[in-house]
């Protein structure tokens, strides 16, 4: 697939699984890993993996729309990725700029609202311009929210939020005693971002790599052995099915022994006496 040939929103013969709305992840975050290894395994330069991987994102976006996901966050370029070779960084920045320019009309036609999440420093001005244009074009769309995380780092986001909060406290605009989790949320790059329900990483790596650390606190993790260029909408649907089968407790617990009352055989309270509690 080339970046000039967008996948169709609906593919003949491909139908997403029917999941109850209450079992469907509303916000899916994806770490698109394995592009370089996918290319090298085929005797191709790493840049070719990025080319195929970026184009593949549109197929996953289409799959998210079809199954009913409300928000999708894609880790396209991290604050740590600047450590890569200058040639690879130049390719990724140039290619991201071209993808944004050529595919935003497709995403707009799909009613997708595009948002940029990340830091301004070091980001190419031409890429930032295309991101802002994509946001402007799709600002009033009401479908899937696509967060493009470019020049993003989870620790950097929390550090930037903390710095802004400290500045407002020093200026008297905010009381330190009133700072809560909701306060911190307001200072993040995207204050209206939902909490991540399903966190997907491809490429057979099992770590979160500094992505959406605050928003992913209670996310269900799904690690795919497939490199990102091989991860398509069907794989996204499979991850959603796995998510639907999990029990999310948010720190709580449910006692599944429903028919035993305290004091019955096997209950640890059986051997206790009032005197035990007085000791």
TrEMBL record:
Q: Which domain of life does the protein's organism represent?
A: Bacteria
Q: What does this protein do?
A: Catalyzes the condensation of isopentenyl diphosphate (IPP) with allylic pyrophosphates generating different type of terpenoids.
Pro residues bias locations: 14-23
Give the quaternary structure.
Answer: Homodimer.
- Which cofactors? Mg(2+)
- Which CDD domains does UniProt cross-reference here? Cis_IPPS (cd00475)
What's the name of the protein?
Isoprenyl transferase
Q: How is the cofactor bound?
A: Binds 2 magnesium ions per subunit.
Q: Any stretches that span the bilayer, and where are they?
A: none
Q: Name one Pfam family in it.
A: Prenyltransf
Q: Does the keyword Metal-binding apply?
A: yes
Q: Where does substrate bind?
A: 34-38, 46, 50, 78-80, 82, 84, 201, 207-209
Query: Any keyword Electron transport?
Result: no
Q: Which organism is it from?
A: Actinomyces naeslundii
Q: Which residues bind Mg(2+)?
A: 33, 220
Going by the UniProt record, its keywords in alphabetical order are: Magnesium, Metal-binding, Transferase
The catalytic residues are 33, 81
- Region ranges (Disordered): 1-23, 254-279
Family according to the record: Belongs to the UPP synthase family.
Q: Which SUPFAM superfamilies match?
A: Undecaprenyl diphosphate synthase
E.C. code:
2.5.1.-
Q: Where is the composition biased (Acidic residues)?
A: 268-279
């Amino acid at each position: 697939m080339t970046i000039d040939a967008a996948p169709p929103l609906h593919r003949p013969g491909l139908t997403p699984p029917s999941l109850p709305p209450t079992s469907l992840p509303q916000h899916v975050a994806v770490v698109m890993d394995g592009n370089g290894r996918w290319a090298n395994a085929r005797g191709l330069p790493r840049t070719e993996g990025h080319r195929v991987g970026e184009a593949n994102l549109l197929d996953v976006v289409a799959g998210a729309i079809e199954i009913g996901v409300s928000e999708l966050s894609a880790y396209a370029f991290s604050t740590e990725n600047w450590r890569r070779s200058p040639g690879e960084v130049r390719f990724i920045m140039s290619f991201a700029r071209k993808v944004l320019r050529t595919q935003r009309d497709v995403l707009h036609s799909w009613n997708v609202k595009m948002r940029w999440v990340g830091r301004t420093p070091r980001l190419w001005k031409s890429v930032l311009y295309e991101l802002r244009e994509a946001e402007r074009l799709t600002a009033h769309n009401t479908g899937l929210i696509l967060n493009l995380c470019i020049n993003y780092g989870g620790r950097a986001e929390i550090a930037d939020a903390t710095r802004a909060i400290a500045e407002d406290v020093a200026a008297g605009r905010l009381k330190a005693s009133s700072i809560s989790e909701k306060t911190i949320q307001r200072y993040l790059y995207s204050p209206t971002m939902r909490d991540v329900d399903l966190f997907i990483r491809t490429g057979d790596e099992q770590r979160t790599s500094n992505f959406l650390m605050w928003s992913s606190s209670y996310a269900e993790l799904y690690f795919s052995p497939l490199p990102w260029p091989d991860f398509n909408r069907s794989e996204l649907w499979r991850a959603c099915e796995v998510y639907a089968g999990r029990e999310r407790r948010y720190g709580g617990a449910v006692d599944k022994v429903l028919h035993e009352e305290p004091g019955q055989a096997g209950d640890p309270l059986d051997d206790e006496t009032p005197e035990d509690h007085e000791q």
